[in-house]
Amino acid sequence: MTADQPPFRDPLLPRSARIDDLLARLTLDEKTAMLHQFAPAVERLGVAAFRTGQEALHGVAWMGRATVFPQAVGLGATWNGELVRRVGEAVSTEVRAMRTQDERVGLNVWSPTVNLLRNPLWGRNEEGYAEDPGLTSAIAVAYTRGLRGDHPDVWRTAPVLKHWLAHNNETDRAVSSSSISPRVLHEYDLPAFRTAVEAGAVAGVMPAYNLVNGRPNHLSPYLHDHLRTWTEQDLLVCSDAGAPSNLTDSEKYFDTHEEATAASLRAGVDSFTDHGTDSSVMIGRLRGALERGLIAEDDIDTAVRRQLAVRFSLGEFDPALDPYAGVKPADGWDTPGHRALAREAAEQAVVLLKNDGLLPLAPGSGRIAVVGLLADECKLDWYSGTLIHRSTPLDGLRERYGADRVTFAEGVDRVRLRLGADGTGWARVPGPAAGAPRTAEEDPGTEAALDPALLAGRTDLPPLTRTDDPAEATELALIDWGNGLLTLRAPDGRYLSVADDGYLRASAARPGGWVVQESFRLAPHDGAHLLLHLGTGRYVSVAADGLKVAERGEPVEIVVSERGEDAVARAAADADVVVVVAGNDPHLAGRETEDRETLALPAHQDRLWRAALAVNPRTALVLTSAYPYAVPEAHAALPALLWTAHGGQAAGAALAAVLSGDVSPAGRLPQTWYADDTDLPDLLDYDIIGSRQTYLYFGGTPLYAFGHGLSYSSFSYDGLEVDLPGEAAGGAVARARITVTNTGTREADEVVQLYVREADPRVRRPHRQLVGHARVPLAPGASRTVELTVPVTALGYHDVAHGEWTVAGGRYVFEAAASSADIRRSADLTLPETAPRARPVLTRGLAAADYDEQSGTEIVDRTKTTGDAVTPKAGAVGGAGGGAGRLVFRDCDFGTGADAVTVEVAGAGEVLLTLPGGTHVAAFAIPAAAGGPYAYTTLSAPAALSGVRDLHIALRGEVRLARVDFGA
């Protein structure tokens, strides 16, 4: 080494030695400063500043113009890993290219989201890939491989998986706890992360805001016990924004921020995202924790080492050897290849839900009416970049068929606002706003911003005013997005919005922002209505210099000039075929911070398709949305329905290609579409096994099944064969082969889905579970034999009786299918029989959370660092205080006899042990005691148990049961 080139700069040394050298050169203060999201430069060593976190869910987000691909749930609907890998490659290439122009663009990308789409009411449904862990992990592996790049040493970007763990609700997301049983944990939630991590293209994970089993995810023991055992990489764990402060502020889990910060660091959090770009607060907390002895320098070193490992992998310290360092915008941003890929992805994401022969549209279809609230929209979401190109359904169909053949009706309600108790005033949009240009430079939310939540609304336009002349009243376009959530748009296309000064202006190009300032709701008041502005919680009022929001509003009447359904009916009656485009705005009524209340299509849009169908039976409904809807009446009445997620910049052209038949649809649903809200359990019920959630356990009849999707062609499945050819590197592997033939007249893709079910399970198992899939392009008459391999371990389940993964012997049915409800061929595979194993309770005891069944309980934290306990849910029927609950433990082997039972409990209440039928075993009354919920005590009682028996345990009050042991 030369004097001016320290070892950490030497590319010939092992990376671990280089990290050791750099770590040793850093002072404690320098290392501590690196633990914030915005790590400062260490100029004396020539180490640059580093930022964790660049959003890149379906394109580069928050940094200005970039290629916008379909939403993540749309990418999941492609069921095409190779396509998604190419999308990841394009996104990461644009990250690199954009970074050459703007150093704020980070290479540590926070993507993808692998939270499973367990409940379609989740507000962030658009961010996930599927409800199935196998499909989710397959798409995540593909996307992260694309993001990582294929160089053996240098990563193009460093992906971080979101959000660890069991995170599917926005309601109370920072304080709610997901109760996850060991089976749900090991069979459902962990696999989506594990497969992607084991594939080797993941740099880290981000813990979620919520708690799991009563413990914040930022303290999750699973980070150590599971995540870090799946790979030898030094994974980087980045906190979610503001979550470190939540541990004390909202969750009240610790008394001081120093305790909370220390605990999360020891649990495995390596980078703290809090207080924006101001690192001083978090660094002060870390220093305080050091001074109090809550952490040691070694804890700091461990976290810094993980960050440095990522930075070295990105080529930061070897710029001359970085193969991605020279990517320029001309070569890697908005390229013809990226534009073509965006369209291909949007085409492959379209799902044909129903078709009674209306589609594809015949070349001589005549006049086409394109109607609906999303017919001329190309919607973005919170994690989108700014559009460079834009194609709406109207654009796409006009380009495909000619503008002279395609008519349009949006279907908004045309309204005016009457003001005042006497109704003599009217709302008027001042003239200057009418000619204001719509440019990215002017409109909030379109420019690059590290945190677009901080972008302020415009104050440079005049506010709305009151006029007493009805002729001067401005006609506005009103949309009800569901449950009375309204937007109002001026004739120039700008939405009514409220900026920091409180005035109401026609100023926003679209609804958006962390707190949406463009949404309203009518609030009943003294026999009239006030217009409530949802962003501020205030009411529209009239001031001397214009309309503004205030604590006290004045009556507002919405006077309708024309109903949207009337305009739609006129357009539909004058057309030969009608395409109704309905769906959601991703910033409204279901988004980050806000779950949906219902699966129903909003009433405004429901009226539109009905109006079109009433005058024209040749009506198709296209649902463009971030989530499923329950539309059983539309399914029954309409000849054709399609669904696509918001498809990005090429959405309209892609839809037109499918409607016209230029492309045969082959998207498949990545989650179940339920027929009614009553099909769903409570949003906060995470027990998919007990409450029968997802296609795996749902016992009803869905509107559209998981994996459903039709084609313009037809396919036959023949000759399914399943065998065990031998051992692979990871153990025994089953091999399935099926021949698929395109029996139609069109070239089309078929998505072959392979499911498996245990024929005679001893415990509750899925109806069937996806274990493989392949998207196969086939010419008319062509056949292809698809071979899928399935690790035998994938046939297993988590055996709570023995605390291990178990593959039971017996018969397994493999099913080749076009969806989870459309089974085409089946074949059996029989594994050697294994004798049933009872619970060895005399030697293992019973961990309370290892139940087989439960009702009225939830799992909570045994201590603040590790372990589980079970407690009755608050308000459960039959309890005193906290509630009442029941646990069932099957096949407990008490041998020749157990004469004593011991419970480990905290809190206050009762624990009652019985046999089936109510036979008493033991009862414990736990009095209230000092020490709080973690002050456990051990109580014993005589018992008389023998043989193999089921055991029932009733919990009442606020008791926490950690475990039960038996003495012989």
How would you explain this protein's 3D organization?
- The protein is α+β, with helices and mostly antiparallel strands.
- The protein contains 21 helices and 47 strands.
- A six-stranded mixed sheet has the order 1-2-3-4-6-9. It has a six-stranded mixed sheet with strand order 10-27-26-25-11-12, sandwiched between helices. Strands 13, 14, 15, 16, 17 and 24 form a six-stranded antiparallel sheet that branches.
- Strand 7 (211-212) and strand 8 (215-216) form a beta hairpin.
- Helix 5 runs parallel beside helix 6 and helix 8 (243-249) crosses helix 9.
- The protein starts with 14 loop residues before the first helix and ends with a strand.
Distance between the termini: 69 Å
Strand coverage percent: 25-35%
Give start-end ranges of low-pLDDT stretches: 438-442
Total number of helices: 21
Largest sheet: 6 strands, mixed
Q: What portion of residues is helical? A: 10-25%
Mean pLDDT reading: 95
Shape: globular
Largest beta sheet: what is the strand line-up?
1-2-3-4-6-9
Total beta strands? 47
Rg, nearest Å: 30 Å
Oligomer: single chain
By secondary-structure content and strand pairing, the structural class works out as alpha+beta
Short structural summary:
The protein is α+β, with helices and mostly antiparallel strands and 968 residues long. It contains 21 helices and 47 strands.
